[in-house]
Recover the amino acids of this structure.
């Protein structure tokens, strides 16, 4: 059984990478959660968009994210790391940056 998701959990595109946001709300009845992506805003995600949950971390399943969120994941750390190319070290785990 996977750990229950709670507001405040950090959100990642891959385990071992930098966080890209945080869980703001959890709607158990609809099985959705609201995630705030750094530099991207809030997105409502279905349960299918979650690959794993452990130790207060939510790992996303990129293939099940809305296109608008995928676009936001191209820029989560622009202010801190302007020269980085991917939201994750391995581009298969994260969204390609512009």
């Amino acid at each position: 059984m996977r750990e229950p998701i709670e507001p405040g959990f950090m959100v990642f595109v891959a385990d071992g990478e930098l966080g890209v946001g945080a869980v703001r709300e959890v709607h158990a009845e609809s099985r959705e959660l609201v995630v705030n992506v750094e530099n991207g805003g809030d997105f409502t995600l279905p349960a299918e968009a979650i690959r794993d949950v452990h130790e207060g971390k939510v790992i996303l399943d990129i293939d099940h994210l809305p296109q608008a969120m995928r676009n936001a994941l191209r820029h989560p750390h622009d202010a801190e790391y302007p020269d980085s190319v991917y939201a994750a070290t391995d581009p298969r785990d994260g969204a390609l940056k512009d």
User: Anything to note?
Assistant: The beta strands are 10-12, 21-27, 32-37, 41-46, 50-54, 57-60. The longest helix spans residues 67-72. The radius of gyration is 12 Å. Residues 10-72 form one domain.
